[in-house]
Design brief:
5-stranded antiparallel β-sheet, FAD/NAD(P)-binding domain, 346 residues, 6-stranded mixed β-sheet, 6 helices, alpha/beta
Length: 346
């Protein structure tokens, strides 16, 4: 009897975990990644919150399982642009031609990061000292240099929360869920790198809901002396010698603040990566160009199958902002939903 095949679009954490879980359930898996290397945003991260595990360790663990399993076939540099139903199967379309066919498909296309330059008042892309949280990760993994002098061992650094999230001007009213804890993690990393530095976090309110998150927040304050200021920055402007002057209001103290910083880090939120256009027998996977909307799942409640159409499942952060543990657990749950579908239970 021929084994049933599942195709997965996207080889980030959700796609990799889905592939492993489905292969362990006995299915053949074709895993497609449009970039030249798998891993998604995980491949660009230094350490993970809350335990500071190197991101590379988790990615290596997932990749070892994927590459070692004989029922998983990974292809990189493949951009699946659409799907077509062919009887009970799905054909995967690349550049108007059929790339493959499967009994079911998992869309695990992940998320994009908000473009920090859209918040013009912060000067990202204009002032070299203003960087995004993603760019700070590339500095931590030594793929990029610090934006201040190497001789500066006591820099003043600010981290701005909720850039592109919870912001009506951007059209993104949702919380990106990982920005607060990422800021706490990066603030600790900065203090470890520069023990004499002054690190400030500008926040709206701290949303530390995950396991170990609140404890890490207290550790940042008590052990690393990170200063948390409740209030949004109103503007950032150059202050000479490559530094940045920021203005804000401390809403707890009820007073305005003006600080001169060596580096300003913008904690960019998550935005949608694809916008599936679902028709009767086809699904077009368009790169999302507008604001806000993640992939919507009809009837996505406890116990409901996470599909756009029968046989087309969705896993991970393409459904909405999620932390890494949530993404991995969702991928495992999607694999079980898919098994029930292919076995006729759903």
């Amino acid at each position: 009897m021929t084994k049933q095949k599942v195709a997965i679009i996207g080889a980030g954490p959700a796609g990799l975990q889905s592939a492993v879980s489905l292969a362990e359930l006995g299915y053949e898996v074709d895993l497609y990644e449009k970039k030249s290397r798998p891993g998604g945003h995980l491949a660009e991260w230094h350490v993970l919150f809350p335990d500071m595990q190197p991101a590379g360790e988790l990615l290596d663990s997932l990749m070892q399982k994927v590459l070692a399993h004989p029922q998983i076939r990974l292809e990189t540099g493949v951009n699946i642009s659409g799907l077509e139903q062919a009887g009970k199967s799905w054909q995967l379309i690349q550049s108007d031609s059929v790339r493959g066919e499967a009994d079911a498909v998992v869309l695990a296309s992940g998320f994009k990061l908000f473009e920090a330059s859209k918040k013009e008042e912060y000067g990202h892309g204009i002032y070299p000292a203003v960087i995004s949280s993603a760019e700070l990760e590339t500095i931590f993994i030594r793929e990029k240099e610090w934006p201040f002098e190497k001789t500066n061992k006591s820099p003043k650094i600010g981290l701005v929360h909720c850039v592109g999230s919870r912001d009506a001007k951007c059209g993104n009213l949702y919380c990106s869920k990982a920005c607060c804890i990422t800021a706490v993690k990066q603030a600790i990393e900065l203090k470890k790198t520069f023990p004499a530095s002054e690190v400030y976090c500008f926040y709206m309110d701290m949303r530390m809901f995950g396991l170990g998150y609140e404890e890490l927040y207290h550790k940042a304050q008590l052990d690393y002396k990170v200063q948390f200021i409740r209030g949004r920055l109103s503007e950032a402007s150059p202050s000479g010698a490559g530094r940045i002057q920021v203005k804000a209001e401390d809403t707890l103290m009820g007073r305005p603040l003006k600080l001169t910083l060596d580096m300003l880090v913008l904690m960019v939120g998550m935005t949608a990566s694809v916008s599936p256009e679902v028709k009767e027998n086809t699904v077009e996977l368009k790169e999302y160009a507008n604001k806000g909307e993640f992939v919507k799942i009809p009837g996505a409640v406890i116990g409901a199958a996470q599909w756009l159409k029968p046989g087309l499942f969705v896993a991970g952060a393409c459904k909405g902002p999620a932390t890494l543990p949530e993404v991995l657990n969702d991928a495992r749950a999607t694999a079980l939903d898919l098994r029930n579908y292919l076995s006729g239970v759903l």
